[in-house]
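re: ur question from yesterday

yeah so i grabbed the chain u mentioned. its 161 aa long if i counted rite. heres the sequnce exactly as i have it in my notes:
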Amino acid sequence: MIRPATVDDWPQIWPVFDEIVRAGETYAYPTDLTSEQAQALWLEPEPGHTVVLEESGTILGTAKMGPNRPSYGAHIGTASFMVSPRARGKGVGRRLGEYVVQWHRDHGFRGIQFNAVVETNTAAVGLWQALGFEIVGTVPGAFRSKAHGYVGLHVMFLDLA
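ran it thru and got these structure tokens back, copy pasting raw so excuse formatting
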């Protein structure tokens, strides 16, 4: 079940967020964020939206979405995703991705732009391409991966117009 995230979900989201950020392979968030700081970054205020994918009371993944930029750029959306390492390979990312695309369509966005998809995150790149996103550019060496050193960040786009 995908549903809106609440502050009561944060105790289950936080360990996933912290583990993924500390792994140093997909997000450029500071690794010393407190739980409170991370919660403020992840639980999107309106007009954004944050959801969780929950099964049997366990949160397996989460996504946040909303306008990529304010004002004159607010017609293009963006999103970020985190899937529990214990739930990878079970379709959680795909289900969240499909939800995010539909949410943006339902809210009248003209496209979705992912600003920073790490090129070595091949599972994510492949999923977004399967959902219709295109790589519109890559910033070489823009991400410092713990495992791979300096790697590119893809900008990916899905036209909803």
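noticed a couple things. The first strand starts at residue 2 and ends at 4. also Residues 2-159 form a domain with the Aminopeptidase fold (CATH 3.40.630.30).
anyway ttyl
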